[in-house]
Design brief:
Elements: E1 2-4, H1 6-23, E2 28-33, H2 37-52, E3 56-57, E4 66-71, H3 76-88, H4 90-95, E5 100-105, H5 111-120, E6 126-127, H6 136-146, E7 150-151, E8 158-160, E9 172-176, E10 178-179, H7 190-194, E11 198-199, H8 202-214, E12 219-223, H9 240-248, E13 255-259, H10 268-276, E14 283-285, H11 293-298, H12 305-318, E15 323-330, H13 337-350, E16 354-359, H14 377-400, E17 406-414, E18 422-426, E19 431-435, E20 444-452, E21 457-461
Parallel strand pairs: 1-8, 2-3, 2-4, 4-5, 5-6, 6-7, 9-12, 12-13, 14-15, 15-16, 19-21
Antiparallel strand pairs: 10-11, 17-18, 17-20, 18-19, 20-21
Bound molecules: 5'-deoxyadenosine and iron/sulfur cluster.
The site of iron/sulfur cluster has 10 residues, from helix 7.
């Protein structure tokens, strides 16, 4: 792991200034982001650099001098969408030949994808993987000066501080606390494309959270592929529960969220910290992936269903109203109907507020992609629909239990459903459609919950 120095980042900022002079005034950039919140956080840094290059932002490819597409490799479906949209950029490039098209993110660490872009997407000028994000200005400058296509393949894991940031919105913010993943779940491409786990220093995290709180941000999410591994690579006894307590000590009226927690590393010490820190939201996203011990083992998850259920029990003993959400993969290679039914039983036992459900998608280069997969797609799809229907019924019941309660919510925007004025989030992260005055946007308010559906709550400001 390399620490990128201040001098190295200063050199990138100097490149930004030279690019700004070259692009001239009125230059515009478009950033298109796919995938997880880590990618959203990365794109905020890309926008920071682009702003330092004098660019303003547009959502129209035709208006852009520089286009950056930040890609996701986690499922084949996401990849196909990205490639379709990158393909369509050929039209804006034709109308605007000086336009520079860059692709970055996890797909740019898959050699077969980069080869495809090289050969079949000739309008793309440059690609770089997540490990090279901090060098984006230097790479762009090279393309602008020699006019040659550039395919960067840097797999050196690093941590860089001091990259400028342009955030999306002014109430919610993402703060990466670590990068990479060491778990190698057998279906997952992430450890192959984002490198090994490395943590930012607690000082850097606290500085960033302090700046956000001072700027009035109200909802701050700490990000990492597996936040419970935080600090393992740092000196001393740093761990995620300790970091949460320190972040909780930052002055200001804001809520702290975090994701993602791996059940093999989630511990009573974490739950104690959540229960004792008043700013930590009563919400845990704890992906279970499957309810069958045989499948969990084949996924290399490192826990059993019983261990998972015990964690949930311990958490609820400390925080009775905690909101639990999870990820589930349906149709892992060789999963039987009986094993799928174990997943259904688990979700009935846990009763999550909401689930993110995925059909298994083979990722080339992962061990699971080599396994025989005899179950027909139509069968998996039936299981998937059954799981979604079961969860929808649970979500609707859980949401109905909120009706009549009065809750503190963060009003985060204007509503577009035609019936309500505002959208808001409960401390547990549930969406609330509200009637009330627009002056409440960006503030905490008390709301009376008057109705509920599978997806959301409805109410009015008090
Ligand atoms: N197929 C389907 N879903 C996947 N996920 C990760 N890899 C795959 C895959 N190959 C899901 C997991 C993870 C979430 C972010 O994406 O559920 O928790
Ligand atoms: Fe993928 Fe597993 Fe790492 Fe999550 S913990 S990113 S599912 S390997």
């Amino acid at each position: 792991m390399t620490e990128i120095t201040k001098e190295q980042i200063d050199a990138q900022l100097a490149a930004c200034a030279r690019i700004a002079a070259k692009l001239g005034s009125g230059a515009k950039a478009m950033v298109d982001t796919y995938g997880c919140q880590q990618n959203e956080a990365d794109s905020e840094r890309i926008r920071g650099y682009l702003q330092a290059m004098g660019c303003s932002f547009t959502g129209e490819p035709d208006e852009a001098d520089v286009i950056v597409v930040n890609t996701c490799a986690v499922r084949a479906h996401a990849e196909q969408r990205v490639l379709g949209n990158v393909g369509a950029l050929v039209h804006s490039k034709r109308r605007h030949p000086g336009q520079v098209i860059c692709i970055c993110g996890c797909m740019m660490n898959e050699p077969n994808v980069v080869a495809k872009v090289k050969g079949s997407y000739r309008h793309v000028d440059m690609t770089f993987p997540p490990q090279s994000l901090w060098r984006f200005p230097e790479l762009l400058e090279q393309v602008l000066s020699d006019g040659k296509r550039l395919f960067d393949a840097n797999d050196e894991d690093s941590v860089a501080e001091g990259i400028p940031v342009v955030r999306q919105g002014d109430t919610k913010a993402w703060v990466s606390v670590m990068y990479g993943c060491n778990n190698f779940c057998s279906y997952c491409i992430v450890p192959h494309v984002r490198g090994r786990e490395r943590s930012r220093s607690p000082e850097a995290v606290l500085r960033e959270v302090g700046e956000l709180a001072a700027a009035g941000y109200k909802d701050i999410t700490l990000l990492g592929q597996n936040v419970n591994s935080y600090g393992k690579d740092l000196p001393g006894n740093m761990d995620f529960a300790t970091l949460l307590r320190k972040v909780n000590g930052v002055p200001g009226d804001f809520l702290i969220r975090f994701m993602t927690s791996h059940p093999k590393d989630a511990s009573p010490a974490l739950f104690d910290a959540m229960a004792q820190c008043e700013k930590v939201a009563p919400h845990l996203h704890l992906p279970v992936q499957a309810g069958s011990d045989r499948i969990l083992k084949a996924m290399n998850r490192g826990y059993t269903a019983a261990h998972y259920l015990n964690l949930v029990e311990q958490l609820r003993a400390r925080i009775p109203y905690v909101v639990l959400t999870s990820d589930i993969i349906v149709g892992f290679p060789g999963e039987t109907e009986e094993e799928f039914r174990e997943t259904l039983r688990l979700i009935e036992q846990v009763r999550y507020e909401a689930l993110f459900t995925f059909l298994y998608s083979p990722r080339p280069g992962t061990p699971a992609a080599e396994l025989p997969d005899p179950v027909p797609a139509a069968e998996k799809s039936r299981w998937f629909d059954e799981l979604v229907a079961a969860q929808n019924a649970i979500s609707a019941e859980k949401h109905a239990a909120y009706v009549g309660r009065e809750l503190r919510v963060l009003v985060d925007g204007a509503d577009s459903d035609g019936k309500h004025d505002l959208t808001a989030r409960t401390a547990g992260g549930r969406l609330v459609h509200l009637t009330g005055d627009a002056s409440a946007i960006g503030t905490y308010q008390m709301a009376r919950i008057t109705g509920a559906s599978t997806w959301a709550l409805f109410g009015e400001l008090k």
